[in-house]
Amino acid sequence: YADAVLCNGLYHSRIM
């Protein structure tokens, strides 16, 4: 989840 932490914004939308 390292990438998610860095791109908390864009990644969060992708994970959800």
How far apart the termini lie comes to: 13 Å
Count of DSSP E strands? Answer: 0
Structural class by helix and strand composition? mainly alpha
Looking at the structure, what is the overall shape? globular
Binned strand content: under 5%
DSSP helical segment count: 2
Order of helices and strands: HH
Mean pLDDT: 60
The description of the largest β-sheet is: none
Percent helix, as a range, is over 70%
Rg calc: 6 Å
Low-confidence stretches at least 5 residues in length (pLDDT < 50)?
none
Question: Helices, strands, pairings?
Answer:
Layout (H helix, E strand, L loop, with lengths): L1 H5 L1 H8 L1
Write structural notes for this entry.
The chain is mostly helical and 16 residues long. Helix content is 81%, strand content 0%.
Short overview:
This protein is mostly helical.
Keywords:
0% strand, single chain, 16 residues, mainly alpha
